[in-house]
Design goal:
single chain, 254 residues, 8 helices, 69% helix
């Protein structure tokens, strides 16, 4: 019981510290703003399909506001040049990775990480806290993107017709999947430590590789999708979290 209580206190202390830092980090609010603006940018580049005519931009033909979130059949990009496959809410997964990268790089470049591990001997505490920060940041970015999508749809007069259940399950599933991505991005961040640019590069590269995985949650999502996303999020957090802790345990703090 004493050990459990001690662990809870350590993790709670780290979470309080990291959330305080999060709410005082300008980059977090910038990412929220960018997440809200992206839907309007996507619509500005989208083609329209005139009655009896061909789409002006066939690969990015948006007629419904909720296509900014996801397509009914998924939106996995066919190739790195297939912009249509990336024109949806899944962009925020990479933003969440960048947020994690900034936090870890800041800890190492400032030397603050030495103070952290003096007060929190277990590297796992650090992993749990940084993963939680990434997931929370990612979820709030999803909400910001959703608000931006609704505003963009209203301004442009796009249709809002959708199966409400599928939309809600899609959004909830993507929030759960955030755990997988943030845990993966944390592995990259602790590997490169204070080398922020390398962390950013590999976050983008792996983000693009795993990007289609986020599209398992579509506008046609069901309760099964939610359960699968929950299982994937939990499994990803455990596996990638263990890898991050292993890296931290076998490398110095310099």
């Amino acid at each position: 019981m004493a050990t459990t209580s001690s662990t809870t206190l350590r993790v709670s202390s780290m979470l309080k510290l990291d959330f305080y830092r999060l709410f005082h980090t300008p980059a977090f609010y910038i990412m929220l703003g960018v997440s809200a603006i992206i839907p309007a940018l996507i619509l500005s580049m989208a083609g329209t399909t005139p009655a009896g005519g061909a789409s002006t931009t066939p690969a990015l033909d948006l007629v419904n506001t909720w296509q900014l979130i996801e397509r009914a059949g998924g939106a996995a990009a066919a190739s790195p040049l297939d912009f249509a496959g990336y024109a949806n809410i899944n962009m925020v997964f990479i933003f969440a990775g960048l947020l994690v990268a900034l936090f870890v790089a800041s800890d190492y470049s400032s030397g603050f990480v030495k103070t952290i591990f003096t007060a929190h001997a277990r590297k796992l505490d650090y992993v749990i806290s940084k993963t939680a920060i990434g997931v929370f940041g990612g979820v709030t970015m999803i909400v910001a993107y959703l608000i931006g999508a609704v505003a963009a749809g209203l301004i442009t007069g796009k249709s809002f017709e959708v199966a409400a259940g599928g939309l809600v399950l899609c959004l909830l599933s993507k929030m759960l999947l955030m755990a997988v991505f943030c845990s993966l991005f944390l592995v990259i961040a602790v590997f490169f430590r204070n080398q922020l640019w390398w962390t950013i590069v590999f976050t983008f590269l792996l983000g693009m590789v795993f990007y289609p995985a986020a599209s398992v949650a579509t506008l046609a999502s069901t309760s099964v999708t939610l359960v699968v996303s929950l299982a994937a999020g939990a499994a990803g957090a455990l596996v990638f979290g263990a890898i991050s802790a292993l890296i931290l345990n076998h490398r110095d703090l310099a």
